[in-house]
Design goal:
By secondary structure, the protein is an alpha+beta fold. Helices cover 57% and strands 13% of the residues.
Length: 60
């Protein structure tokens, strides 16, 4: 989250094309964070099914 905290509002509001969509850079940060969380959750389910303890979560 350090990148967002240190970014100027004008930088975050800048619009770019991402996946054929017009988005702000701030939207892309949150999109990527959601994607990362989704994959971590998938890994946690797999580890639990295999009886393996998951490593602790390191947040932003």
């Amino acid at each position: 989250m350090g990148l967002i905290k240190n970014a100027e509002k004008i930088q975050l509001d800048e619009k770019i094309v991402f996946g054929n969509e017009n988005m702000t850079k701030e939207n892309i940060f949150y999109l990527l964070r959601g994607h990362q969380v989704h994959h971590r959750a998938q890994c946690l389910v797999y580890l639990k099914l295999k009886g393996i303890a998951a490593p602790p979560y390191v947040g932003w």
